[in-house]
Every structure is written in C-alpha cells, then in structure tokens.
Amino acid sequence: MLQDQLQRPLRDLRISVTDRCNFRCTYCMPFDHYDWIDKREILTYEEICRVVRLAVPLGVRKIRLTGGEPLVRRDLPDLVRQLAGIAGIEDIALTTNGSRLSGMAGALRDAGLRRINVSIDSLDPERFRRITKRGDLDDVLKGLFAAKETGLAPIKINAVIERCVNEEDILPLVEFGREHDFVMRFIEYMDVGTANAWRLERTVPKAEILERIGARYPLEPIGRGEGNAPAVDYAFRDGKGTVGIVASVTEPFCGTCSRGRLTADGRIVTCLFSRTGHDLKARLRSGTGDDEIREWMAAVWAGRTDRFSADRLHAIQSDDGYDPEQHDKIEMITLGG
Ligand code: SAM
Ligand code: SF4
Ligand code: SF4
I need a labelling partner for 214 at 20 to 30 A (CA). Which of 129, 169, 176, 288 fits? Predict the structure, then answer.
C-alpha cells in the first residue's frame, strides 16, 4: 500500500474546481485585488477525471469538490456525474458557500452527490454580510433548505469562529442545527494563505467552543469519524444530533492526514499549508502516458513529510512562539479548502 514518509496512506482527494468566488470572506481572501488563474490554465473536467482514475489505484476513495466557490464553475453536475462513474470512488462530497445552491441542489443530487457542507458563519444577516463582504444570508439559507428537500444527507454547516467577530453566533448556530437536523461543524480560525493577516489571538480554541456549547447543551465525546476525520464529533446528551469541531490549531491531526489536494490549475499539493505544489498539469498536457503519471503521483505522495499544524502547535508552545509571516503558503482559494 502506498504510504508517505510518516506511514499515512492517500485516501482523500480534495479537488479545487476553480479559484473564483463570488464572496470575499475576510478570513479567506480579503484582497481587493487578486489575479485570477487564467481560464486556459484551469483543468478541464476530462483532465480532472483522468487524475481521479489514476489516483484510485494509489488508494483514493473519497473526493471532495471545493474551491474558490465550486458552484460558480459551469456545469458542475456534469463533473459530479463523471466522477460518480469512476470505479473505486465511494464518496463524493461538496463544500460550498451555498449562494447558488437553490437552483442546483436537485441536479447535483441526481448526478450522484450525496454529502454537502455549506459554510455559514452567522445567522445575523448584517454580520453575515460583513464577514463574507458580498454574501446574502437569505440566498444561502434558500440553498441550504433546497439541498435538504432534495434528500442530500447529511448536510453539514461549516462555521469559522473568529475572536471578536462571531463568537456570539456559536449558540444560535447550534440551535439552528438541532432544530432543522443539520450537523454543525465549528472550525478554528487558521493561518491559511498569507492574505488574512492571521494572529493566534483571533483563533477561538476548540476547548472554548465546546465549553460554550456544553454549558447549554451537555455533550458526550464520540471521536473522529473513521478515526481520521478532521472534525472531532460530540453527541448532544439529549439525543438531538451531533456537533463537530475542527481544531487544526489547538489539536492538530496531521498524524492521520490522508488528504491530497488538486489545485484548479493542476498542481498536486500535499498539505493545506504548502508553499508550493507539484506540477501535474504539465504532465497531463504533454502527452505523458497514464503509467508514468501514476508513478510520478505515487512518488510525490511517498516523499510527503508534511505536518504543518503539528509543527505550528509545537512552535506556539515553545519559547520562540510562532510567526505566521515566516512561512509562505498558497492562498486557500487557489488550493481548495
Ligand atoms: N467556497 C466554499 C465555501 O466557502 O464553503 C468552498 C471553499 S472554502 C475555502 C472551504 C472552507 O474553508 C469553508 O468552510 C471556509 O469557511 C473554510 N476556511 C476558509 N478560510 C479559513 C480560515 N482562515 N480558517 C479556517 N477555515 C477557513
Ligand atoms: Fe469564497 Fe469560500 Fe473563501 Fe468565502 S471561504 S471567500 S466563500 S472560497
Ligand atoms: Fe494534513 Fe497539512 Fe493539515 Fe497536517 S497541516 S492535517 S498534514 S493538511
């Protein structure tokens, strides 16, 4: 079985289908100006499917489509349908800001999508607008409920919690999830990319998020889904569902990280915090054969030593502390969250 230098297999492939986005979330891409990837450099659906077919023998079983905002890419259900037809792929999921979901949920479900994560950081329309800069909460909620009506399940809601920005949204989001049968997933604010000027003080640690929720709705720990999911899950003791917390900063999970990433412009990236990627597109577009590309992909994974979040925690706890500016990273919208 293919393993990296830390004995981690390759199981999941996160595919960024575009770097374009109709929101400008302050924690993700607070630029006024960003040079979008030239359309000709973006992988076609055919190229993406070829990569996935080559990745299955290496161990990949799960696909997550992301971006940028994946639903701004034209005909996304076509890609889902093609991916669903690839032997060996057991699970296709999507992460979206939900703004275009209401008109597309049915087509995505019919194409073979089963699981969906919708990002909603606040249920207060003004705060939602302030965080996303361009988002309209009503549109997103319409998309969320349209997805529910089509039978997509489970539907998870991702919320990034940032100090002094949306801490007071934690309980309303929990209550919303419990009422409508959505699974809330709270995400610690991370130093992805370099544009968000992240500082540790802005991260609300998992322990604090849990304390806020548990004080009102007592919780029972469940653990990580399949033992290696980014989120640690907790069940509400009253039986009304579960909540998950992704604690990349305070409880890193690099030891079990089986996630590779494919950027919209065709680079293989082995960590969310990578400085750079491995140029797969050049190989796809130069007539290189399948076997050679598969071997190259295997070699990239076999050489992987990434454990950025574990190292960051170590630095945070050391006397020198952690300086996010010491490390260049690919922006989140480019590599796919
Ligand atoms: N546009 C889609 C969306 O927002 O759901 C998909 C791409 S987005 C980059 C994927 C996820 O990354 C979202 O849930 C978003 O909230 C999360 N994210 C972005 N920047 C983050 C940060 N600095 N810290 C933690 N999560 C972040
Ligand atoms: Fe766009 Fe998603 Fe990033 Fe927000 S988090 S700016 S919706 S890619
Ligand atoms: Fe995986 Fe990198 Fe995140 Fe660690 S920091 S869990 S290696 S993506």
Answer: 129
